[in-house]
Design a protein that fits this description.
mainly beta; four-stranded antiparallel β-sheet; 48% strand; disordered C terminus
Amino acid sequence: LRLCYPNKSLNTYLEVPRSDVPILSAEYIPLSNDVLRSGTMAVSYSDSVVRFYETKPSTLPGAGPKEMPLVRETKLLESQTVLRWSSKYSRLVMGSRTGVVSVIDVDQPTVYSKEKLHNLMVSDMILMDDTMFTSSLEVPTSVKCVDLQRSVVRFALDGHAQGCTTMAVSNYHTQLFTAGFELFVLAYSVALPRLKPYKLDDQHRPHKGRIIGLQAIPDSPQVITADSHGLVKVWDLRMYNCVQNITPSKDDTSDA
């Protein structure tokens, strides 16, 4: 896991110590006077351990890429496939390989809240104020919307035949975008989730592989999708049409 400068060369300035244990997810905990472990990177590994690494520049003298010092590690009952930070509650929310969503105080070593929301692994999570969206490969309820204040599931969605792998939320029309193993993205109204979703599906130049990247641009009517063949598409939500294609340096139709 590397942190890179936002330039064309993507020069590395920080990296997590290398390990033979696969990394499943990572989340930055922003600096805060109320959180002792703020300014750290939480990293989940397949050995059921979440490790916290220091990223503050004051602890990293000298030039060139530096390894992040290990601050603390927390051993859990199972591996966590998704980590998300809640700025509103100053808590780390975790989704596990068995569909359990847990909440921990990063300054404490124990989990104090957990709930089983899915029967299969959690593939993605989005936190919005008092609302949380979770997704999994479970069908037919691959996406769930949870009211964090009341701890209840508000609604569940079932638009993907083999489950949902990634999500994004746009504040332009307050829409939830979901993608699975298909070659399209579904757009749901958060306020009216029972309405039939729009489908982002370019008939003229469709995606060639499954969607692996999905990003809604804040305060903009644009959504970006990327597939496993390297094709990136920019969509305009005012028309639900693709307005730009960005291809990799090699032929985007290849199976590389």
